[in-house]
Amino acid sequence: MAxxxxxxxxxxxxxxxxxKQPAHIAxxxxxxxxxxxxxxxxxxxxxxxxxxxxxxxxxxxxxxPFKKTxxxxxxxxxxxxxxxxxxxxxxxxRHLSTERRHKAAIIAEGEPGDIRVITYQQLHxxxxxxxxxxxxxxxxxxxxxIIYLPNVPEAAIAMLACARIGAVHSVxxxxxxxxxxxxxxxxxxxNFVITADGGFRRGQPFALKPVVDEGISGxxxxxxxxxxxxTGQTTHMQPERDVWWHxxxxxxxxxxxxxxxxxxxxxxxxxTSGSTGKPKGLLHTTGGYLLGATLTCKLVFDLKExxxxxxxxxxxxxxxxxYTVYGALSNxxxxxxxxxxxxxxxxxxxxxxxxRHRVTIFYTAPTAIRSFIRAGDQWVKKHDLSSLRILGxxxxxxxxxxxxxxxxxxxxxxxxxxxxxxxxxxxxxxxTPLPGITPMAPGSATLPFLGVDPAVVDAKGQPVKRxxxxxxxxRKPWPSMARTIYGDAARYKKTYWSEIKGCYFTGDGARQDAxxxxxxxxxxxxxxxxxxxxxxTAEVESALVSHAKVAEAAAVGxxxxxxGQALAVFVTLKQGLTxxxxxxxxxxxxxxxxxxxxxxPDKITFTEALPKTRSGKIMRRLLKEIASGNEVKGDVTTLxxxxxxxxxxxxxx
Length: 653
Ligand code: PRX
Known about the structure:
The protein is an alpha/beta fold. It folds into two domains: 11-510, 3-Layer(aba) Sandwich (Rossmann fold), CATH 3.40.50; 531-652, ANL, C-terminal domain (GMP Synthetase, Chain A, domain 3, 2-Layer Sandwich), CATH 3.30.300.30. 32% of the residues lie in helices and 25% in strands. The chain has 20 helices and 32 strands. A seven-stranded mixed sheet has the order 7-6-19-18-20-21-22, sandwiched between helices. Strands 9-8-10-13-14 form a five-stranded parallel sheet, with helices on both faces. Helix 4 packs across helix 6 (153-165) and helix 10 (286-300) crosses helix 11. The model is unreliable at 1-13 (pLDDT under 50). The chain binds adenosine-5'-monophosphate-propyl ester (PRX).
């Protein structure tokens, strides 16, 4: 329904038919009108220190109050200077003296259908005991701990236990390979790993512990591996190094006072792809991150005491960190965790869960929505989803068709959709509607959250005109921003704070419409968004060239109906070798071993040479057009060898 109108100056300003949110949500929302939001947003930008100090006092329990809200020496921020607090105490202890004490903190369903309900009191006990297990095994404040678990409550327990004693967790998504585990262990200098025998996926147990064993083999730095028994698979335990979770917990005391930590104490490192072959370990700290996660979770999802909040992201991603775990628990909400895939045993697993547990807030990704559309409405319609009141979307732009389906078929036009734009780096929502009040624009994340100052600019940092595409930047620091790339402050500065002077560079392209709504176009760097996951083309390329038969490789994203983008790679083999389907499969498996199954190329084209500029840069733009089956348009004058292009086109045709 996008319309275009000409502005006075003759520029094309795209607008869209806005959809009003259902009125009953606004009646009970915390921010009651768009005018109130606008006023608050203006105030928050006019006096950020005053605004954030107020939010920090209202939303966080401090052991010692902070003295100064922000010390900003670009690109380094210190928020809530002098303040002391503990994240696990904010997520647990502070609820124990309230009516929430025996409320469910986590309701979890394993893929086989096992259900667990853990109250705040019980979660507190488990976290304290596990924190004592960590201490007994030698974990100290600031030590890095790798968590490589399925999406089960113990993942949250392990994260909170680290936070309780000041250890720094780095959760690695269970789908990543041994090589990826090894890279992360080495990059952050971890001495400890928490894992499980395995987890359940598509009705089968899959193994995790052997992946860890392979990943850390020969690494002297690992002192302990703590292993959760989840599937009961036969598991090799290395004497001296490996211990069972349940055996350690058996004798552990439930007394463990939360450590009093500086507001800037490191909380976690989370790795994400960038435009080089090496993933970046983004470091988040205690006070600012907790405030961002707490405040956005409360306001964007309109959290109420009686809600059951389900964020479908795995804890291995930032969404799982900020919403399944920290934001939900810090607000005293009941958070729902599901271990497995959406389509097991049938394509209605999610709808079945919502109906049985009476989920009220449902937060998922466009790629999942598109696969539900494909499975068919009948799977949704079989279920009573009337408990739902708020829907959320994250990870990539949601196409307007998927938006409408989500709104109409899943939400029955009763539930507003919070399309939340943010990143691993931002820690919390940055551009998002607010419940009840922001007019919804299907496909747009709409307006900035409080205290957030985004702009769309050109390469020189000048704001572009409304309706024109440019680079999305954030002009002011915010509390939940990542503080650095662990061990690489220079890369942090170069990636985020050098591209556009004085601004945080998001790596996304965007445009703003006549209503002020932000429309995210997608990445402008060499990062792909596949099923809502960030995959750096350079990472895939370096995985491919590590294969003995590969001389050179180039990876590009092409449009894909379900995944948003699919991964297409062009491979040049070493002298005298020829490619066939067997080698294609071998290379796919090789990438899965090097990175993880999420990075397996969808399409592999063997080519004698890659199109390059005269200075030797691969012209990915041309490859993208070829792989997408499009005509090669645009400037090819910098191409070194025109024959390459015609040969490539011949292969594709
Ligand atoms: O390109 C944007 C896209 O996902 C990127 C961030 O990826 P990651 O750090 O893995 O975090 C994903 C979960 C927050 C962004 O740079 N993205 C995320 N949410 C949206 C989005 N693009 C458009 N609309 C969104 N709602």
